[in-house]
Fold this sequence. Notes:
Radius of gyration: 26 Å
Shape: globular
Distance between the termini: 44 Å
Strand content: 15-25%
Amino acid sequence: MSRTVLALGLLLVVGLTGSAAAATGEGRFDRPRRGFAPPDTVLQDGSPGDVGLDAQPIDDAMRRIASWTEPTPGLAHPMYAGAVALLAHDGVVVDRRAVGKELRYADAQGTELPPDQQEPVRPDTIFDIASFTKLFTSIAAVQEIDAGRVRLDAPVAEYLPEFGVNGKERITVRQLLTHTSGLQAEVQLWKLPPEQRIPSVMQLTPEHPPGTNYTYADPNLITLGVLIERVSGKPLDEVVRERITGPLGMRDTGYNPPPSELHRIAATEYESNPPRGLVRGQAHDENAWALGGVSGHAGIFSTADDLAVLGQTILNGGSYDGVRILSPEAVRMMLANYNQAFPGNAHGLGFELDQRWYMAGLSGPHTAGHTGFTGTSLVIAPESGSVAVLLSNRVHPSRDWGSNNAAREALAQGLARALAVRPTHGSDSWYADPARPATLTTGPLGPVSGPARVSFDAFVDTQNDSDGIDPLIVESSVDGQDWRRVALRASGPGAPTGPQDQLAGAGHRSWWHVVGTASAEPGQRLWLRWRYAPDARYIGRGVNLDGILVADRDRTLLDGERQVDRLRAEGWNQVER
C-alpha cells in the first residue's frame, strides 16, 4: 500500500485508531469502542446474558422476523417466504433463528405448493445474497491496493485500457468503490449476445462527470471485477475463493453453488423476463446470470454463519482464527467515509456507512454494511462490537411482492436495544421508544419567584439528517394549556453547540448535560414537559432522560429523582438500562 493511501485512510478514520477494546461482557451502548476487537476473537455460540445483553429486545425482534413469514396487518401476503437471522456481540452468537420456507410457492402468483412439497428454512440454508457480493469484490480490490498492485486513486484505464473511452478516462478505482464514477445505475447485459456483454460496459458513457455525483451503480462493481481479474490473472470466483472465503473457512460461500447443494438453497423468483422459470441455485440477478453467474456486483451465495465470520473479520481488523486477509490499515480505509460531499450517501470502499434505513439504532459514522435485492443485509457495528445478519428470499415468488426493509430495521434495532444505556443518577432513567411519540409532563410547580432553571441529562440517539429529524423538545407553560419551547444548551461529546430549541443526533453515544431557562413571572405556576417527537421514517435507539432538576432563584421546584410521582409519563418508561 502506498504511503499516501495509508495516510489518507488513517486521517479519515480517527474513530478506529488506538488499541482494541477488550470484550467486557458489559453489553454497553453508551461506551463506544475506539479500536478493533482482539484479532484472536472467534465466534462461538452463547446467550445474550453471556455478554451483558438484554434478551428481551432480541427475542421481540426475532418474533417479528418470524411473523413476517405469514400475512400481517398492512400486508396482503408474507413479507418473505423464509429467513435466517443472526446476531453476534463481542464474539458470541447470541441468537440465530431460521423461520419459514426456503421453497414455498408453485408459481409467480403465489400459489402454495402442497405442504409435503414445501421445504423449511434451516440455520444452514444457503441464500443468494445478490448485491451483498459487492463487499467481496471490494475486499478483493483492497487486497490488491494493500499489496501495492493497484493504486486507489489511479485511473481505471491504467489497468483496463479499453475502459478509458467516452469520457471515462479520469474515473478512478476509488470512484468505482464509492459509486461516484458518474456511470449509470443499471445495464441490461442479459439482452446482449454473450460476446458483447463486458465490452458494452467498457464502452459506457458517464451520465455525470466523475466525482460530481453519487449514483449506486452496478456497472461500477462489474468493472471492478474485471479489473481484479486483469491484475490477478485469475477469474474472479477463484480470487474470492483463494483470498477470502477459503482462508476464512466460509465453506458455504461462493459463486455457482454445486447442484448437490440445491436442497439447501433458498428459492428466489419465478422469472418470465428473461424466461427462466423458478430460479434456484442460479444467480437471481439477470446480469450476473448472463455473465455465467460470476460478476463483481452480484452472484455470490452464502449462509448466515459464514457472513457472521466476514463481519467478525472486519471487527477484528482484517483477521480471523489466525488468518489475516486485510491489514488493519486497509480495514480502516474501507470504513472511512469518502462521500462527505454527498450527505446521506456515506460510503467507504465498498461498504455503505451509517445507513439508518436498515442499520436503525446500530447506525454510526463507522457502522458498515450492505444489502441485497433478494432480501439480505449485513450490519457491522465496530463501536459496539456487533454483527447483524438477515438473509431472506423476499423475491420468492415475485419481486413485486415488495420490500423487507422493516425486517432489516427490526433486527438491527433489536440488537441496539439489547445494549445497555446506564443511568447517570440512581438505578433507572426515563426511556422513550423511537417507534412512537412520548411526553413526560410535570404537575404545576411553584408559585415561582421568577424564571426557573431546568437541568437534566439526556442520552439522544435519533435521526437527524436530510431525510428527517426526531427531536427531543422541552416546553414550558404558565397555565398548563399554552406551551412554548425552552432554549437548551447541551454539553458533552457530540453535543450541538449554542442554544437549541430541540435536541437530536446520533453517533456520539454519550450522555449530554442539558440546561435551559423556563420563563415565568413571580407568583405564577409553571408546567414543564419533555416531548419526543419522532416522524414515521428511520429510527435510532431512542432517548433517555435522567437527573431532572427544576429550580427558581429561591428553591428547588422539582427533584425528578426523589419526586417521580410528580411526573406524568405518556410513552416514557422507567428502565434500568
